Backbone:
């Protein structure tokens, strides 16, 4: 635990401590605190108590003997309360500054090779504008954000993601400024002006997110301000009560009562909680554009998942070739090779690789003279063409449309492949149906457990896939998903999001293509892949730098955790008041021995009792900083179980713990001889 | 002595006299069972009114409602937003209040009432304000101060208006949850429906029952008796007692014909009338709670609310009963064992029926009493007092629903956070707006009680001359008076002269502040809900009917009550109790 606390405070790093300290002291400025009513009141109380002590005689304060060290202790503790609150905020802010700092470091000025009217010229990245085309060669850095229009290559994105494994990118993929190409050569069309790049936006968002409050935080602050206001009035009425009953009132006692009653614990930690939320998301290598998005993530009802990449391991690979009846395998392999040789999709590349793996050699003269027919989401096939000759590869339905009939033998193979979750692609040529390529889909490890825990939190996953019904059904059943959309086109996702939104549900969806952008924008949580197109990234409110769609589930857990932390600390903070009352009220009314029955801890020294309560109130803040930055632990489970557990821990615990802690502080202080 | 009774083997005398502790608890639980059952029976009827469906009574009431609406030019199909609804409510209440106020201060001029003096404006303001807000604090001496014309025109009118207004507000609130077109209804139509379908028939029924069981309802002003021991004859004022008593209880008003309220035999002659009265002032609040479950389609939620409110009820009733049974330790331990604190209580009803009546009257906003509250022990008065500090959990007619929802929204917010959900109630999102209004509702109550207390205590000697008890008791009495005013309860502990310009004005303002802002905030919440469409749930998010939600709701209510009032309670009843207890300890030593 000790080490844990230390690590939250940033390990042993003197510069960092100094930075925290300076920021903490700066935050004492009342203008800074005015957004935090609880701490604002605390600071006012601190200033008032200084004033009252200086002019103590006028206010009838006893200044004899042991009262003086008591007052000094009270002032110190009041100061520390504000100090710890500011400290929590500056630690959290320090963490978010680390993130923006590392993002800024990536923004180095680089030189790009501008291609204009067929000629090449060198240009610095700050002079690049939208629509310009640059070429990036091996071991060069991508000058700024853009989209690949020609070529392919492997990119090292470790500067963004921290993942050193290079990422293979092809035409249509977007690239981020600051990443380097390890091999290959690409032409890029620039998609962002200086100051609008992905990094610029991210830095802006991380900084902005730390400042603006989410709607839920606003609601909580209203509630806390309301409580603070009523406590202020209650304590003022105590003044009247004391004057009425004993004709004297010690203002310092009342200030202690006020500070102990107002929810200083949650008030002190609330700003830190907000910043910590964004930071924690960042630790997952996800950039959240707003705190609201993270909060929404915690309350998702429906989550729309792509099959590929989320449920199954990203890229499908050619797994097996099935030759049609009466044809030779070698001939079929050549056709497969030809159909995919210009196909830059990952499937196409895997077909070429598979053919090579089978030691099948395709002669150079065989590949000459073909024209490429690219894949579109409408036709659902791609291939090559030479005169009347053609070789196409595509989904079975698309191919049956071309050839005009359904080949029963091939269809049976396709059905079998689908039924075990694979994807079948039929290869056909002008001479007839050639055969089937089986692409295999492998479920991601742990996906079933993750889907189950989503379901246990009453979140409904919906799987969208372009695959046929059979494949979709198989994969969905394997992963434990009840609802899926097969043969889906990009607009189906949007429709699904809209459908759920009209039922007032909170929808999350993952997307990476430009086609996904409307759905991403419509969803409450749009989760875009960094490798996706610029449009998708702009529409989304969260971007995953590692391109791992499963991480949306982590973000959901995180969103819940943030809400739980906030709720738990509020409950704890308010529940603490009960025990503080039972310590402070008997101490204030110590002149009435009749009231001793509410002094359930049996304290005999009222000054020491007041000090102990204030000590607890002050030092609970730094003790809870690690919890608020790290979040409370929670197991995904049914709402009722979670509720019971948290009521018992933070509600009942919030009542009992202070009794024990204040009692312990009192007797320790008394034991070491603090005698006032 | 007790053994001689038991040896005769008379089970009932044993039960009611020797085992009074057991029989008392059983009587209290029986009362609670009876009012629960009767409230539950009424709930389908109320839920039909909430849902805007026709009740079986409508065929009698509809011609009347239609006639009035046609005469007044009200279009019942037109529904309005908060601004117009609440505007109508305030306007109507203001006009009625103004009329009654003028009636009281000018009656000597215009209305030929034999021997009647006009009221002074302060007292008239206090009376009208408190009856208009369903509070019924009676700072005048009743019935000597009022003519039967006053009672009929002012008091009974205001009793009907206040109860019906409250119920209309709750109809708008429920409609706000159910509708999604941004309209919360038509106040005048709601008012007429509530009056003719619910309040009026039930008060007539209650009146008839009370007459049957012996409550007088006459048009002459007094009966003259000549006690055999007395030299002179005595005039006992009587009048339209049963008529007043019907609406007094059904409308959770509580201001009785006699100053002594239901402790006076003509208001409450037997244990049967006691039961009828207890049932009448709880039946609509309980019925409304169960009706909520039906109309909102979540009966588990209604059961949970019932459970929470009745936990508070049982705590309050039993705390009062046990404390009164124990009496003051200083007395009982000094050998004066009188078997409970019977001072100020009707022996025919006993401790149990006095306790359940007192705590039922403060749990709802009735404030009727069948015993003298000033003579309760400090712990006993605490049991009667604390429901008022929670702003009458069961509440008045209609306002009970509004009050409990402010706690529910607050709890939903905290509970949702604790399970990692964004808060929603009945599938409607709770946002900062709703939290703002329900926080206002929750803090305005303690603030309105505590601020005047602080002021009065600070300027104590001047304003507290008329107090006669010791200082802790004075604090209790002040707290009781202000809590009763702000929670629109009207229960009176007395102990000091309240019929002064200062207290009349202050309490008049407090009762108004304790009622209309809260109705406004709750209707604003309804307005905000009515703009929202409900979410179609897969599984339930936070199950607001579950045990743990109920636990948290109770916890929140008690916590908010405790943290708001603990200092004053400890300086008042707790200190008084401690004193009494310490005296006993001293007596032992």
Residues:
């Amino acid at each position: 635990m000790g080490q844990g606390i230390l690590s939250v405070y940033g390990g042993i790093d003197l510069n960092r401590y100094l930075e925290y300290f300076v920021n903490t002291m700066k935050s004492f400025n009342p203008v800074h605190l005015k957004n935090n009513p609880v701490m604002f009141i605390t600071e006012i109380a601190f200033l008032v108590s200084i004033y009252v002590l200086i002019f103590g005689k006028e206010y009838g304060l006893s200044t004899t003997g042991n009262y003086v060290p008591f007052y000094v202790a009270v002032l110190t503790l009041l100061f520390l309360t504000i100090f710890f609150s500011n400290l929590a905020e500056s630690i959290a802010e320090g963490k978010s500054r680390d993130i923006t700092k590392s993002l800024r470091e990536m923004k180095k000025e680089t030189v790009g090779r501008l291609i204009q009217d067929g000629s090449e010229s060198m240009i610095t990245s700050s002079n690049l504008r939208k629509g310009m085309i640059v070429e990036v060669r091996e071991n060069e850095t991508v000058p700024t954000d853009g989209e690949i229009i020609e070529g392919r290559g492997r990119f090292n994105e470790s500067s963004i993601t921290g993942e050193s494994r290079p990422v293979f990118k092809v035409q249509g993929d977007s690239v981020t400024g600051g990443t380097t190409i390890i091999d290959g050569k690409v032409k890029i069309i620039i998609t962002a002006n200086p100051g609008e790049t992905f990094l610029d936006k991210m830095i802006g968002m991380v900084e902005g997110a730390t400042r603006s409050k989410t709607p839920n935080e606003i609601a909580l602050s209203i509630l806390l301000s309301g409580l603070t206001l009523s406590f202020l009035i209650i304590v003022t009425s105590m003044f009247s009560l004391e004057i009425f009953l004993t004709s004297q009132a010690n203002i310092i006692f009342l200030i202690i009562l006020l500070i102990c009653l107002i929810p200083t614990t949650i008030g002190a930690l609330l700003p830190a909680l907000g910043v910590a939320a964004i930071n924690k998301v960042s630790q997952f290598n996800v950039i959240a554009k707003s705190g609201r998005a993270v909060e929404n993530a915690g309350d998702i009802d429906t989550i729309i998942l792509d099959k590929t990449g989320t449920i199954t391991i990203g890229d499908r690979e050619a797994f097996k070739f099935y030759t049609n009846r009466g044809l030779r395998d070698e001939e079929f392999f050549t056709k497969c090779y030809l159909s995919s040789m210009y196909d830059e999709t990952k499937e196409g590349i895997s077909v070429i690789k598979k053919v090579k793996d089978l030691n099948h050699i395709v002669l150079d003269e065989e590949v000459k003279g073909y024209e490429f027919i690219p894949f579109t989401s409408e036709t659902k096939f791609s291939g090559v063409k030479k005169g009347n000759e053609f070789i196409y590869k595509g989904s079975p339905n698309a191919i049956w449309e071309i050839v005009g009939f359904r080949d029963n033998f091939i269809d049976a193979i396709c059905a079998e492949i689908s039924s075990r979750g694979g994807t079948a692609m039929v290869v056909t040529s002008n001479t007839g149906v050639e055969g089937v390529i089986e692409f295999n889909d492998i479920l991601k490890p742990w996906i079933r457990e993750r889907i189950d825990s989503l379901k246990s939190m009453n979140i409904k996953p919906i799987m969208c896939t372009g695959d046929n019904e059979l494949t979709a059904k198989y994969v969905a059943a394997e992963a434990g998903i009840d609802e899926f959309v097969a043969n889906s086109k990009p607009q189906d996702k949007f429709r699904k999001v809209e459908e759920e939104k009209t039922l007032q549900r909170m929808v999350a969806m993952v997307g990476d293509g430009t086609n996904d952008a409307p759905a991403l924008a419509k969803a409450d949580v749009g989760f875009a892949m960094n490798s996706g197109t610029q449009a998708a990234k702009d529409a989304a409110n969260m971007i995953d730098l590692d391109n791992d769609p499963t991480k949306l589930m982590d973000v959901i857990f995180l969103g819940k955790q943030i809400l739980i932390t906030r709720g738990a600390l509020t409950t704890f903070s308010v529940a603490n008041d009960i025990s503080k009352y039972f310590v402070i009220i008997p101490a204030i009314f110590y002149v009435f021995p009749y009231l001793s029955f509410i002094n359930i801890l049996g304290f005999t020294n009222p000054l020491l009792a007041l000090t102990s309560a204030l000590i607890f109130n002050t030092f609970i803040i730094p003790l809870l900083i690690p919890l608020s930055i790290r979040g409370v632990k929670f197991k995904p489970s049914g709402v009722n179980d979670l509720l019971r557990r948290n009521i018992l821990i933070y509600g009942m615990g919030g009542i009992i713990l202070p009794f024990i802690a204040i009692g312990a502080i009192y007797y320790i202080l008394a034991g070491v001889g603090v005698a006032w | 002595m007790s053994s001689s009774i038991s040896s005769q083997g008379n089970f009932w005398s044993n039960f009611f006299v020797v085992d009074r502790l057991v029989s008392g608890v059983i009587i209290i639980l029986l009362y609670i069972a009876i009012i629960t059952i009767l409230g539950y029976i009424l709930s389908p009827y109320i839920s039909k009114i909430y849902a805007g469906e026709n009740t079986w009574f409508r065929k009698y009431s509809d011609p009347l409602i239609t006639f009035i609406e046609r005469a007044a030019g009200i279009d019942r199909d037109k529904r309005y937003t908060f601004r117009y609804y609440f505007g109508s409510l305030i306007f109507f209440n203001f006009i009625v209040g103004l009329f009654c106020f003028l009636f009281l201060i000018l009656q000597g001029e215009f209305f030929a009432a034999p021997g009647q003096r006009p009221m002074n404006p302060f007292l008239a303001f206090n009376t009208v304000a408190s009856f208009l807000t369903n509070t019924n604090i009676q700072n005048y001496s009743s019935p000597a101060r009022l003519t039967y014309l006053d009672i009929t025109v002012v008091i009974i009118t205001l009793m009907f208006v206040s109860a019906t207004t409250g119920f209309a507000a709750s109809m708008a609130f429920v409609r706000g949850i159910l509708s999604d077109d941004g309209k919360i209804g038509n106040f005048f139509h709601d008012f007429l429906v509530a009056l003719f379908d619910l309040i009026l028939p039930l008060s007539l029924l209650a009146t008839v029952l009370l007459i049957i069981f012996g409550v007088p309802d006459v048009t002459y002003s007094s009966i003259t008796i000549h006690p055999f021991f007395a030299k002179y004859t005595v005039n006992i004022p009587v009048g339209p007692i049963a008529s007043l008593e019907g609406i007094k209880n059904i409308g959770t008003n509580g201001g009785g014909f006699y100053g002594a309220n239901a402790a006076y035999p003509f208001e409450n002659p037997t244990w049967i009338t006691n039961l009828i009265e207890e049932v009448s002032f709880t039946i609509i609040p309980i019925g409304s709670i169960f009706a909520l479950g039906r109309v909102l389609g979540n009966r588990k939620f209604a059961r949970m609310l019932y459970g929470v409110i009745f936990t508070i009820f049982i705590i309050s009733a039993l705390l009062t009963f046990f404390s009164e049974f124990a009496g003051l330790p200083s007395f009982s331990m000094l050998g004066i064992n009188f078997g409970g604190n019977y001072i100020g209580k009707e022996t025919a009803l006993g401790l149990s029926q006095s306790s359940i009546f007192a705590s039922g009257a403060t749990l709802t906003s009735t404030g009727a009493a069948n015993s003298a509250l000033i003579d309760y022990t400090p712990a006993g008065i605490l049991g009667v007092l604390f429901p008022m500090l929670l702003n009458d959990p069961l509440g008045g007619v209609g306002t009970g629903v509004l009050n409990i929802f402010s706690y529910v929204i607050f709890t939903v917010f905290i509970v949702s956070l604790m399970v990692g959900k964004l808060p929603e109630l009945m599938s409607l999102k709770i946002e900062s707006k709703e939290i703002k209004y329900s926080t206002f509702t929750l803090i305005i109550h303690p603030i309105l009680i505590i601020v005047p207390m602080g002021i009065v205590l600070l300027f104590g000697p001047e304003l507290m001359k008329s107090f006669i008890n010791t200082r802790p008791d004075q604090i209790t009495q002040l707290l009781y008076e202000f809590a009763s005013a702000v929670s629109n309860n009207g229960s009176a502990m007395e102990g000091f002269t309240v019929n002064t310009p200062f207290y009349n004005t202050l309490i008049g303002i407090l009762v108004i502040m304790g009622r209309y802002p809260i109705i406004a905030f709750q209707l604003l919440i309804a307005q905000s809900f009515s703009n929202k469409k409900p979410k179609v749930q897969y599984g339930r998010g936070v199950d607001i009917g579950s045990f743990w939600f109920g636990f948290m709701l109770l916890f929140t209510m008690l916590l908010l009550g405790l943290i708001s009032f603990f200092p004053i309670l400890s300086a008042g009843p707790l200190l008084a109790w401690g004193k009494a207890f310490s005296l006993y300890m001293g007596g032992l030593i």
About this structure: Chain A has three domains: 6-100+204-285+557-671, 286-313+443-545, 317-440. Residues 575 and 655 of chain A are 5 Å apart (CA to CA). Residues 6-100+204-285+557-671 of chain A form one domain.
